[in-house]
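This week, look over our next protein:
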Amino acid sequence: MRIFSAVISVVFLLGILAYGAGLRVNFTPSMPRGLYMLKGCGIKRGDYVAYCLPVSMLTIGRRYLKSGSCPSRLQPLLKIAAALPGDRIEFTAEGIYINEIYMENSSAKDTDRNGRELIRITGQATVPAGCALILAPHLDSFDSRYFGLVRLSDLEKVVPVFTEATLPESLISADGTLIDSLNN
């Protein structure tokens, strides 16, 4: 029993040290599962970002997110900074356009997997200063298609350290198109 307790204590301590060193784990399917490292600010279009969603009835009542390290006690979302200040965005029934370029797999669903109604954002705008649109190239991703723009100051840049798939550091090309590397 003492050996088991010692092993658990060591694993727990290593977890705390890894977290303190900026390591984060993604368990969700919307982005490649694996280990990521916080890299601070200086976010560019196409960078991976971690985002702590504010507490809302949509996430807590529906249990979309597991418990985690965010101030809301939920796990952070791992997404891609798809649109930044000055970018033109349009939400349509087909999906999201950024600077008139269609983003693959960006259409919002009317209901979640349990048949509960989801918020559908429509319209067009220019991303204002201090804001960003975050997406993931997964049809079931819980991202800006449902909760809109987020504050840039709430995003933390992350880079993959070890993931289930080898992906480029940026999934968005210089012209703003979302590269669907997950299916290649």
